Every structure is written in structure tokens, then in C-alpha cells.
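Review form for a predicted model. The reviewer records the input and the model, then writes brief findings.
Reviewer: anonymous (R2)
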Amino acid sequence: MTLKRSDFRFFHRLRVRWAEVDMQKIVFNAHYLMYFDTAIADYWRALALPYEQAMHQLDGDLYVVKATVEFHASARVDDQIEVAMKCSRIGTSSMTFTGAIFRGDEHLISGEIVYVFADPVTQTSRPVPQVLRDILTGYEAGEAMASVQVGDWASLGTDARTVRTAVFVEEQRIPKDLEHDAADLGAVHAVVRNRLGQAVATGRLIPSGTPGVSQIGRLAVNRVLRGGALGTQVLQALVEAARARGDREVMLHAQRSAIGFYDRLGWQRRGEAFEEAGIAHQEMVLPL
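Model under review:
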């Protein structure tokens, strides 16, 4: 089966590691299935679906019933390769994913994985839920997988609190009384939801205390989905809200681990690093 890059929307990039090469100095054949499986996990992130939460809501899970690999050429240590993946068929209870591994434009490996949607307790098959069918076909058709809504605490507070509690309180162990404050009531909030209606990212915009300057804060993204541009969607929505009301600048306190994210989006560092809630931060600004 010969496949082209243009056959796919989704690509997962990786570099071949020394541990994946055999005595023939090529990637050991079994690792290609691992590459495909790794790409499948990233494919779910492209759908904005945290896999475990999504399957729980859908009342099922996916089980592999068939996996095949076809070899055309070999990858070698330090090759930079791309694992392409698409959902090529959805039956009554099964779905087929077609994969291809490329080195540049060279097609090295083809793969096919067949899953069955089934009851997680009995592992008996169930029909693929229509909403999941729509998400998969929608992604392959180029549709957006998440939408952002901007509003007040009364309309978005429940979803915003869910994401923030998971990220700040449960994951980062920030005390709940520091994470939730009175500023929420007067803030502009943004919430990103996936096509299951699950809240997966949030942030807020509040006055900074300086006329014409707003502060973005409480930016949080579901742990499983980070790196998939959801945080950027929240940030852009809040920046637009600040611009629409005539602000001249937005600022924020970036956690040290997130500074590179803001750097890439054109934010500027200001002042020295400082601690907030026991975590190192850097003030960053964006002129409007």
C-alpha cells in the first residue's frame, strides 16, 4: 500500500532513538507498532479529547482486534520521522485507522489498526456512539475540534472552576483558598470546550490596577491536552476582549515552566522573576 503525505491531516513527529535500533542498525520491526500507538494517543489530543474522560462519558472503550504493518524501507537511528494517522473507516462497532511513517517525503512503513468500541466491563462490542463518529469524520474533513466562549462567572464559572481545580489545586497543589478569589465575579472568563462539551481550558481577564491595562490570569489547560493550542485559543480570546474595550496593554504572571510558550506568542518579559503561591513567576506584557 503506497501512501502520500497529502493523504493525511495528522502527523506525529519523533526522532529515532538508539534503543530502538537492532543489530542490523535499523529500527527493530516491533517498534513501528509502538510508533503507531504513540501517534494514536497524540491523535486523540488533536481531537481535543482527554482519552480516559472521553471514554468514560461515552460509556465505552476501544480495544485493538487487529494490527498490521507493511515494510517498504527502514528507519535508522537519529532519523527524524513523521507518523501520519487517519481514521479511514467507521463501521457499526469498529473503526479502522490507517497509518504511514515518512522520512521527509519517503514512505517507509504502512500500518492499519482496527479497534472495536466495547463495554469496558464485559468487553462486548457496542455501536460507535454517533457523537464520536461525528468527531472523527469532522476532524478528517478539516473541522475545528474545540470552540471558545467568552463571558462572565455566572455563565462560565462552573466549567472554569472544574478546569482550574484540576490543574491548580489537584495537580499543582495550590491551596484552594488562594486559587479561588473574589476577582472571579467581575472578571471576563474564557472557556474552551471540545465537541463532547467537556471544558478543557480556561483563563480570565481582570483589571490590573493601572488604567488601560488588564491582567490575564488563571490560564489552565487539561493536563492531557497541553501542547495542542488550546491555551493559545484562550489567550487570544482574552486579548481580543481587552482590545475590544480599549485597553492599551495586557499583562500576566507566567509560571516559569510556561515562559517559552508566551515568548513564542510575542509577549515581552518585564522585571525580575518572583514567587507567587510558592511557584516561580515572570511578569510578561503585550502591547495592544
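Findings: The first helix runs from residue 31 to 46.
Further findings: The longest strand covers residues 106-118.
Recommendation: see findings above.
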